[in-house]
């Protein structure tokens, strides 16, 4: 069973954390509680200590064991950090990455999945500041157990009541299961565009932002996979826990994939790799000295096509960004490149494809199955894709 760190912040619903702690222990987990100073004004740390049988931590400078730094040890020893209830103030501090008490310091130091059950007055929950913090945290892979509708302690009615205890406990169980779903599976992912130099200041590129590939890396990490992310030039921050290899050109991406491929179990090629590059990159900047300038382009190596030849028992997943006959082109690519799965999207469709935060993918499997997905945030698309990969992993290698 798992070590769960339960963060309790200063909400009127702090007493509900007692129930949550008890039910998690009943499910076989070890529970340790960390409280914010405001939470201790609403419920005594002694209550949680008595319930869980473990000391409760509040003060970041309270170091009971010499030679060990309490917040780092707790951050590293926990399989999951559940913050229930989470106040508006704690959400804001988490979103900003503040570390001004024990709970927020641990939240920064841990690599364990974080689940948050907010509780607050409806006006506070629907406030744009709070919602922006929620989005920031979600974009980092933090997951939320949504508050429910009801009458608050203050008498106001609306969204903001902490979720019911069974809902919180079920979310914890599912999150813990998911964190193990691809344990030990090595996933290699390419993301972003490539830049093919014309001269020292110009390049041929494409409009890929890398968002889809980074979301796939996040989802694979959330399922417990070991992730190597080979990234073309993007403005994105790579997800914590991924090994990142940065490249610029298609040739460099090809070389990096060739080197890492033997050490992977699953290869997911989301990068928008340039099919062609200028034949020769000029050594100095091309001046405006003519009315016409013809660039000669040559083909880049085909990353997916090449590694698919030595795929063995690996699972190889491709992406197809199409502008016409999307399904037909994707099916051809799946067969031509010997893929197990291909995710296709029509980049001309509004809200789908490059730069935006959403996508509408259709998954096509090697056995011919076609699974159209709705328009969703890229992170949600990535979850579906990783779920599909997990099913193929189980079919191929049995239960993990
Ligand atoms: C009786 C009482 C109940 C409160 N309930 C909530 C609540 O449910 N949600 C919330 O966001 N803030 C609530 N607050 C305000 C927070 O306690 C306050 O913003 C505090 O700074 C939160 O600190 P923390 O996030 O570090 O625990 C409450 C305050 C009091 C006095």
What does this protein structure show overall?
- This protein has about 400 residues and is an alpha/beta fold.
- It has 2 domains: about 5-180, Rossmann fold (3-Layer(aba) Sandwich), CATH 3.40.50.1950; about 185-395, Rossmann fold (3-Layer(aba) Sandwich), CATH 3.40.50.10300.
- The protein is built from 14 helices and 21 strands.
- The chain has helices spanning about 15-25, 35-40, 45-50, 70-75, 90-95, 100-110, 120-125, 130-140, 165-180, 210-220, 250-260, 305-310, 325-335, 380-395, and strands spanning about 5-10, 30-35, 80-85, 115-120, 145, 150, 155-160, 185-190, 195, 205, 225-230, 245, 265-270, 275-280, 295-300, 315-320, 340-345, 360, 360-365, 370, 375.
- It has an 8-stranded mixed beta sheet, sandwiched between helices. Strands 2-1-3-4-5 form a 5-stranded parallel beta sheet, sandwiched between helices. A two-stranded antiparallel ribbon has the order 6-7.
- Strand 1 (about 5-10), helix 1 (about 15-25) and strand 2 (about 30-35) form a beta-alpha-beta unit.
- Helix 1 packs across helix 9 (about 165-180).
- The chain is elongated, with a radius of gyration of 24 Å.
- Flavin mononucleotide binds near residues 13, 38, 119 and 124.
């Amino acid at each position: 069973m798992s070590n769960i760190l339960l963060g309790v912040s200063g909400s009127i619903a702090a007493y509900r954390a007692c129930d949550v702690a008890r039910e998690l222990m009943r499910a076989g987990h070890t529970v340790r509680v960390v409280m914010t100073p405001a939470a201790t004004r609403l419920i005594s740390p002694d209550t949680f200590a008595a319930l869980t049988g473990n000391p409760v931590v509040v003060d970041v400078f309270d170091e009971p064991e010499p030679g060990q730094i309490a917040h780092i040890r707790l951050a590293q020893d926990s399989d999951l950090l559940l913050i229930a209830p989470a106040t508006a103030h704690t959400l804001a501090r988490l979103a900003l990455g503040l570390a001004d008490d024990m709970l927020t310091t641990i939240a920064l130091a841990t690599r364990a999945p974080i689940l948050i059950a907010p509780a607050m007055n409806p006006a506070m929950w629907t406030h744009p500041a709070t919602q922006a913090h929620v989005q920031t945290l979600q974009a980092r892979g933090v997951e939320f157990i949504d508050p429910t509708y009801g009458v608050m302690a203050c008498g106001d009615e609306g969204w903001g009541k902490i979720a019911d205890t069974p809902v919180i406990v079920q979310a914890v169980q599912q999150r813990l299961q998911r964190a193990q779903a691809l344990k030990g599976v090595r996933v290699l992912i390419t993301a972003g565009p490539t830049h093919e130099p014309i001269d020292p200041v110009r390049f041929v590129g494409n409009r890929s932002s890398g968002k889809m590939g980074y979301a796939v890396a996040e989802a694979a990490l959330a399922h417990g996979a070991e992730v190597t992310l080979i990234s073309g030039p993007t403005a994105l921050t790579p997800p914590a826990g991924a090994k990142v290899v940065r490249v610029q050109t298609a040739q460099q991406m090809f070389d990096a994939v060739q080197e890492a491929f033997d050490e992977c179990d699953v290869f997911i090629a989301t990068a928008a790799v340039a099919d062609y590059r200028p034949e020769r990159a000029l050594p100095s900047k091309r001046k405006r000295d003519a009315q016409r300038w013809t660039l000669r382009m040559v083909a880049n190596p085909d990353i997916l096509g090449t590694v698919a030849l030595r795929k063995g028992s690996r699972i190889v997943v491709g992406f197809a960004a199409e502008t016409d006959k999307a399904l037909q082109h994707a099916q051809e690519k799946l067969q031509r490149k010997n893929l197990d799965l291909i995710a296709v999207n029509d980049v001309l469709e509004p809200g789908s494809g490059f730069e935006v935060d959403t996508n509408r993918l259709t998954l096509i499997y090697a056995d011919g199955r076609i699974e159209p997905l709705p328009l969703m945030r890229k992170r949600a698309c990535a979850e579906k894709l990783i779920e599909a990969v997990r099913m193929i992993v189980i079919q191929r290698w049995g239960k993990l």
